[in-house]
Write a structure and sequence with these properties.
The complex is a heterodimer. Chain A is mainly beta. Chain A is built from no helices and eleven strands. In chain A, the strands form two sheets. In chain A, strands 2, 4, 5, 6, 9, 10 and 11 form a seven-stranded mixed beta sheet that branches. Chain A has a four-stranded antiparallel beta sheet with strand order 1-3-8-7, with no helix packed on it. In chain A, a hairpin with a 3-residue loop joins strand 4 and strand 5 (42-50). The N and C termini of chain A lie far apart (36 Å). In chain B, strands 2, 4, 5, 9, 10 and 11 form a six-stranded mixed beta sheet that branches. A five-stranded antiparallel beta sheet of chain B has the order 1-3-8-7-6, with no helix packed on it. Chain B starts with a strand and ends with a strand. The chains are: A mainly beta, B mainly beta. The interface between A and B is medium-sized, with 24 and 22 residues.
Amino acid sequence: DAGVIQSPRHEVTEMGQEVTLRCKPISGHDYLFWYRQTMMRGLELLIYFNNNVPIDDSGMPEDRFSAKMPNASFSTLKIQPSEPRDSAVYFCASSLGWERETQYFGPGTRLLVL
Amino acid sequence: SQELEQSPQSLIVQEGKNLTINCTSSKTLYGLYWYKQKYGEGLIFLMMLQKGGEEKSHEKITAKLDEKKQQSSLHITASQPSHAGIYLCGAPGVGTSYGKLTFGQGTILTVHP
């Protein structure tokens, strides 16, 4: 299996622009997670989906952030408008199930907002 | 909310030396995941511990879970440059929040050849 795939790997944008991050989970995995990693706050869970349905978005920082999962093989995380404090590495992860299952991470998207 | 503290924050060792990384939780641990991260890459799953007293090994890496101490340790025997990276521990939530992992800040390991 190719593992979790994320694109783009790097993104540089200017403040105020819309940013869309993409993720393809491992085939057959029912759960998809979006995380953000920063030096100050470490690795934080933003939102997760079960069978394409958003279950818990309590980690999403602001209304500027939104996530969708239109089908089992694709998810997006959108930031509109972007701000310099959104600069971070965004990871997507997927797992087969919920309890006692391993979350497999993608390579991440390194976002820099100028 | 649960907090995980990893110690040390960074570690520099000579190749061949043994080392231990600790992960201490502010609340009861119902399991513990260990991941390794290299710069510019995602997290690589190492091991999952599910119950107190459990110990798992993979190649030269051994992890233990001490429920009473609310702590897990990761031990590397005869370290190699390939072990260098950032080690992260992640704890599951309680009950229906099991899959909502909380992560420690990470331990940066450097291994000099």
